[in-house]
Design goal:
4-stranded antiparallel sheet; 4 helices; alpha+beta; single chain; 35% strand; globular
């Protein structure tokens, strides 16, 4: 937890609520802030926290699995949660709706190619945020779209030469 959020007296409660929100889409059993640590532990997830006053985001969550590590940072603006960073990519979006995540090489034209593929299938983009990594010349494009794309659309986007990875989720 960072900034003002790190000054809260009961960060354990905030951690439990955050954990429940993260896990709710991955478990079939009833889940809430009361049992979130127990459910996490049963899945081999270790939970901890650190406090700091130095960050533009309020909270950072790191998940480590056999396949990958991912760090997501967010902040509270009023009662809205805003994601402000995924791994080293600075993006800004509200984690709600149909979200398409496209990791790609930072070269001209990639955004247009992805938008064109979506447009061919009458999928409208209602929001976009793009963040880069100067060290790797890679970027992350986050798109909120009005329809759930068919798997074939995702596959077409993956075939774009500069695209490295595509993930879609409904939140």
């Amino acid at each position: 937890f960072y900034g003002e959020l790190s000054e809260q007296k009961d960060v354990e409660f905030l951690l439990d609520v955050s954990l429940a929100a993260i896990l709710k889409h991955t478990v079939a059993e009833p889940l809430n802030f009361v049992n979130s640590r127990k459910v996490a532990k049963s899945r081999g997830i270790t939970v901890g926290h650190a406090l700091s006053m130095q960050n533009e985001c309020d909270m950072k969550v790191k998940a480590v699995t056999e396949e990958c590590d991912i760090t997501v940072s967010g902040k509270l603006v009023g009662e809205r949660v805003i994601i402000c960073e995924i791994n080293e990519f600075k993006v800004e979006f509200v984690p709600v709706g149909n979200l398409l995540f496209v990791w790609h090489t930072n070269v001209p034209g990639v955004i247009g190619k992805v938008a064109t593929e979506l447009g061919k299938h009458n999928i409208n983009i209602s929001f976009m945020s793009v963040g880069g990594n100067k060290e790797t010349e890679e970027q992350l494009m986050v798109l909120k779209v009005d329809l759930i794309p068919e798997k074939s659309v995702i596959e077409e986007i993956k075939r774009i030469e500069e695209v490295r990875k595509v993930t879609f989720m409904v939140l």
